[in-house]
Write a structure and sequence with these properties.
Length: 556
Amino acid sequence: MCIVVSAIGCGTITKGNRTPVEDVDELSSSEDESENESLESARNWCGVDVSVLTPAPPKFPFTGNPGIKVSLRQSDDPLDYFCLFFDDEVISCIAKETNSFAEEHFSNLELTPSTRALQWKDVTSEELKRFISLLILQGIVQKPTEKWFWSKRPILCTPFFGNVMNEKRYSLIMKFLHFQSSNDSEDESPSNNKLKKIGKFHSMLMQRFQSTYIPKQDISIDESLIGYKGRLGWKQYIPTKRSRFGVKLFQLCESESGYIWNSIIYTGKGTTFHEDYEDYGVSTKSVMTLIHELKNKGYTLTTDNYYTSPELAEILIKCKTDIYGTLRANRKGLPSLIKSSKVKKGEVLAFQKGKICLLKWTDKKPILMLSTLHSTSMVTVESKKSKSSKLKPAVVADYNNTMGGVDKADQCLSYYPVARNQQRKYYKKIFRYLLSQAVWNAFVIFKKNGGKMRQVEFRMKLIERLIEVTVCNPSTLRGPFPKSEENVVRLTGRHVPSYVDESESRKKSRKCVVCSLKINENGKRVRRESRFECKNCNVGLCVAPCFEIYHTESNL
C-alpha cells in the first residue's frame, strides 16, 4: 500500500524569489517552473519513507477566544439576533441614502405629471423594515416574476404582500434603494469606484459579523458566487458553481457551523486587499486579507487548490497558523518528482520540508495535498452510501470534514434565496445576497445560544416580528409583543366593520373580543355583545373604540 521514497536531498528551508501575479483572472498564482527552478526547489524537500510511521508536526497552540462576543440574553425572538447585524444604524443609513438618491433623481430630471415616481415620499426606518421583511419572504414564497406577489389572479394571489405594502410603494422603494452616495468614496482608486454603490454597506456588515462572533479553531476559505447575468465589467465565470456567471466573493467561514466571518467582493484587477500583502499573488493576498485579524492565534485553515501553495504555507507558519488542503501540481517550489511520478491506487508518495508535508495519493484519480500538521498516517473511513470502509490519508479525511464551511452556508442560503435573477442593478443584487447572509448568521447565533427552531421557521418568525414592531411604537406598549401568527394579519390588513350575518345557527350579535379582555369590579371578565364584526379576522367587535383598538394595538 505504500511507496518508499528515498531522500532526494535535505537542506535548510529557504524562501525563493516571489513573482507577483500579472493578471488576477488567471486560475493559478504562478506558471510551471523551469527545469532549473525544479532542481533548486528539490534541494529543499526531503523524501519521506511512508512505510515508517512518523509523528505529525505539532499544532500551533490555539490562543483564540471563540464564541458570541455581544451581550445577549436567552431569547427565542429571531428579531433580537437579526438586529445584531441590521441594527438601527444600518437601517437609518439605508433610509437616509435612499431618500437622498430620490431627491437627487428629481432634481436632475424633468418628469411628466403622470410619472409614478412623483408619488414618492421619504421612506422611514419602520417602512424599510417592512420592505426588508418582504424581501426575506420572497425567498420562502418563490415566484418567477416579482410583480406576481401582488397579483389578484386566484391561482397566483398572495394577499399578505399587499396587506403589508402595496405594489406601487414597494416598486418605488426598490427603484430608489441606495446604500452609498456617489461622492462618498474616501479613495478614488478604480477598485473603490467599482464598489462605490455598495462598498460602504458591505464594510458595515462585515464589521458586525466579526465583532458579534469569533470562530472556533477550524476555519475554511472558499469562493462564493452571486448569480448575475447583467452587464458588469468584473463579472466572473466559475463553471463549478450553479449560477456560473456573477459576482465572486472570497469568504472565510467557521468550518463547523458555516458562520460567515469575513468576505471580499472580487472586482477583477485592482481589488482592494490588505496593504501588507500587495506583493503576493491574488490567491495568497485574498487568504491573508481574510485571515488578517486571526493571525498568531493558532487557527487551522482549510483551503482548496485555488489558494493552497508552499508560499502561502510558509507565510502562515510565520503567523502561527496551520493550513492544509488540495494542491495544484503547477505551483512553484514543488519537487519535480511529485509531478512526474505515477502513483498506483491506494499508494502514497510524500515529501517533507520543515513543518510542511507534501503528499500524493491515488484513489479514483491522483490527489495532491499539502499540510503543516499532518504526517503520512492513514485512517479508515466508512462510506455512508456503500457502507464500506476505505483506507485514506488522515489529511484527506480531515479535509473532507472541515472544508465545507462556505459550501454549507451557500447551500443553506440557496434554500430560501433573497436575491432574484431579474434584479438589474448589480449593487441591489449584492445587497439582497448580503441580507440573506445576515439572516443566516443570525440563525447560526440563535442556534449557538440554545435556539431550537429550523431555519425556515426562524425566517418566518423574523418576518412576523419585523412587521409587528413597525405597526405601532414599541415604547407606548405596556408589555412585550405577542408572538402569535395572527398578529400580522390583524395589524396590517385592510379591515372594514360589517353587520353580523344572521342565520339559523347564528345570532344577530357576537361577543366583542376587546371588551371580553376587560375585568369588571367583581373580578370577572366583561361580556358585551355587538352587531358588528370584522369578516377578515372573523371576530365580533364594537364599532368604537374596540374596532380601532383591535387593529392597531399589538399587545392584546
